[in-house]
Amino acid sequence: MHIDGNGAAGMFAEALGVDITTAVLTCAGCGDSGPFAQAQVYDQGPGVVARCATCEAVLARLVRTPTDAWLDLRGARSVRLPLGPAAG
Ligand SMILES: [Zn+2]
Question: Domain containing 26: what range?
Fold first, then answer.
């Protein structure tokens, strides 16, 4: 059983301070890219795991301890965050 990326938005927002659902992740496994909202999120284990919707490789893993957040993005070749026009 998995949920979509929207279900993990709160945890990632707490850790990163950005809305991860609109970020575009490129899978290091198959090269596909898509918005985080379309990733397959598993939240049954310790922390949450986001898997590629195409090949099911792990894109991102986030574990929240009482004091810290551990973010593992090794499965994402790149993460593109839409920020709007650059300041300055
Ligand atoms: Zn993939």
Answer: 3-80
